[in-house]
Design a protein that fits this description.
Elements (H helix, E strand, L loop, with lengths): L1 H19 L5 H23 L1 H5 L2 H40 L7 H19 L7 H30 L11 E5 L3 E2 L2 E2 L1 H15 L5 E5 L10 H11 L7 E4 L5 H10 L8 E6 L3 H10 L4 E6 L3 H18 L1 H21 L1
Helix pairs in contact: 1-2, 2-4, 2-6, 4-5, 4-11, 6-12
């Protein structure tokens, strides 16, 4: 019964979060937690009341699904994640070159594979000893970050689910990225095309193209995007170019200055891997918006997504340090009790 009560509490809080302010990682975390608590309830029910449980096929199916998800989450997922990120990282290095920012996914993959396969093959991680205790402590920390990463990505997915095309937006804001001599890069073009689609599904909205000019760019990103959308048939009077920003926060603040009204509602359009962190920044700035993600190449998106999560962890480092401190204390108390 305790597990059911905890599940109900967690699920109700998740619903309240999604209704009141979904632009938080708590949405993904609470959904994952609710699924785990429901699994614990069904398992405890199967153990304590096997006859009752055997008469309810639905609970059998749900428990099987929960156990499979738990195995995938704790064992298979880190391994598969390591292989996928390793393959994606190698492709990225081949296409984009060996740069510090491009090795993140390869490094992350190597850590996961080392803890899942290499280290357990080198020594017996089940035998008592200092190295074993260190291994399981580091594994606990790694699982914490994998769970956080999953929560972050799930929250991003939840924030891009929109069941109506017309959301009655006042504005559609497209966040810029690099511009080259030949025009928009494929990454930026995908963002702008997504912005045009959202704009056309929301009659009466204005389209704000936001991005300044970097030292290696021929013109401001906002101006290049504005020229592109006008060439695609967007009415010139509906196009607003913001050409000063150099960061996501400036994108949002400077775009807000170009909007009329006390609390305008706008669509925030960027690459899919960048949506969640952009929404978190918009929430911090108290801006009313919903996120839309543009697709990009998978090998690029995986590495970029890790950078986004690293940026989110840096921005919320106090919470991360607090969580890690609590986990460390709990682990030490567990070792003392052995």
């Amino acid at each position: 019964m305790l597990w059911m009560i905890l599940f109900i509490i967690s699920f109700v809080i998740w619903i309240l979060v999604m209704i009141t302010e979904p632009r938080t990682v708590a949405g993904g975390f609470l959904l994952l937690l609710s699924a785990l608590l429901l699994g614990f309830f069904m398992y405890s029910k199967a153990v304590s009341s096997p006859e009752w449980f055997s008469r309810h096929l639905l609970f059998h199916i749900l428990l099987d699904i929960e156990l499979i998800l738990l195995i995938v989450m704790l064992i298979i997922f880190p391994l598969v994640l390591g292989v996928v990120f390793l393959a994606g990282g190698i492709l990225l290095l081949r296409h984009e070159g060996v740069k510090p920012r491009n090795i993140l996914s390869v490094g992350f993959a190597m850590v996961l594979i080392a803890f899942d396969i290499v280290i357990p093959l080198i020594f017996d991680v089940s035998s008592p000893g200092v190295l074993t205790y260190i291994y399981w402590y580091l594994t606990l920390i790694l699982l914490y970050f994998v769970f956080q990463l999953t929560s972050f990505s799930l929250a991003g997915v939840l924030n891009t689910l929109h069941f109506r095309k017309d959301q009655h937006f006042d504005y559609v804001v497209v966040l810029g990225c690099a511009v080259r001599e030949g025009g928009l890069t494929p990454l930026l073009k995908s963002r702008v095309d997504k912005g045009i689609s959202v704009y056309r599904n929301n009659p009466g909205a204005k389209l704000i193209l936001s991005g300044g000019q970097g030292p290696d760019e021929p013109m401001p990103e906002g101006r290049a995007m504005a020229e592109y959308v006008i060439s695609r048939g967007v009415a010139k009077e509906d196009v607003i170019s913001e050409e000063r920003s150099t960061s996501t926060e400036e994108n949002l603040r400077f775009s807000r200055e170009l909007m009329s009204g006390e609390k305008p509602l706008f669509a925030l359009v960027t690459s899919s891997y960048h949506v969640m962190r952009s929404l978190i920044i918009a929430r911090r700035l108290r801006l009313k918006c919903k996120g839309y993600g543009a697709g990009t190449k998978l090998y690029f998106a995986m590495n970029a997504f890790l950078r986004e999560y690293a940026g989110y962890s840096r921005d919320s480092r106090r919470n991360r340090l607090l969580h890690l401190a609590v986990l460390t204390v709990v682990y030490i108390l567990f070792l003392i009790s052995l």
